[in-house]
Specification:
single chain, 254 residues, alpha/beta, 7 helices, elongated, binds zinc ion
Length: 254
């Protein structure tokens, strides 16, 4: 028969006591560690949240509005309405990226007074005033194109001819639009010296012509929500790419 040594029950009791003493303290320490991790995570999230608030302002200008319909497609699509749809979608994507978006218009209404003698001039001046007031990182004006030849298609971005930053921004957006929307016949960015908004804006400004309402194929695409989402997302990517490149240049030179 097997015999325990006499003191074995004493050793067992001590071991049990030690376990009873240390196990809860181990457990408590584990909870405290988890709480600390949670607290740090919260802090990081809050920092990201507050950094987001400071990523800067972008102006989204939806062309035309009110009495000024812009161009009208053969299928009946109206430029001013499409501009507003694309602009609002772009705003959503930019806000998700942490930018604050200022719209020059959010309804069908243009920016002119009903009794203004030159409504177009007043409308353009007020758009420029709003941009000046917002002092944005950049401005994107949304339009739909038109051309006598209905075979001409595709998105195209315009910049003010003497603006190097405008040209870089335009190239970045054009690349993303071409990648996302066109399989063939991608268009290239183009300089412009007469468009008032490009000329008068503070900071880089570009005009994004999402497509040609004079092309029945483009028009059919431009009115589709899935296409609008893809286009707005591509414009947003182009902007973010441009701004991140700019941030790198500043870091390198600083
Ligand atoms: Zn237009």
């Amino acid at each position: 028969m097997f015999h325990f040594p006499k003191h074995s029950s004493l050793i067992m009791s001590i071991l049990l006591l030690l376990l009873a003493y240390f196990l809860p303290s181990l457990f408590i320490r584990k909870i405290a560690e988890e709480r600390e991790t949670d607290r740090r995570q919260n802090e990081t999230e809050q920092t990201t949240e507050s950094q987001r608030e400071f990523r800067g302002v972008i102006v989204v200008d939806c062309g035309h509005g009110g009495r000024d319909s812009g161009t009208i497609g053969a299928g009946g699509a109206i430029e001013k309405d499409l501009n507003l749809l694309y602009g609002k979608k772009l705003r959503t994507f930019l806000e998700e990226e942490g930018y604050q978006v200022v719209m020059t218009r959010e309804t069908d209404q243009g920016l002119y007074d009903e009794d203004a003698s030159d409504k177009k001039a007043q409308d353009m001046q007020r758009r420029c005033d709003r941009i000046k007031e917002a002092a944005p990182l950049l401005t994107v004006s949304i339009h739909q194109n038109s051309y006598p030849d209905p075979a001409v298609r595709g998105p195209q971005v315009f910049y003010y001819e003497t603006s190097q930053e405008g040209q870089k921004l335009a190239a970045s957006i054009q690349k993303e639009l071409n990648d996302a929307l066109t399989e063939t016949n991608s268009r290239e960015i183009k300089a412009n010296d007469s468009y008032y908004l490009l000329k008068q804006s503070q900071g880089p400004a570009v005009i994004v012509e999402c497509g040609f309402l004079s092309s029945p194929q483009d028009e059919a695409l431009l009115v589709r929500e899935e296409y609008q989402d893809r286009a707005a997302e591509a414009i947003c990517r182009g902007i973010v790419e441009y701004l991140s490149g700019k941030a790198e240049t500043i870091r390198e030179s600083g």
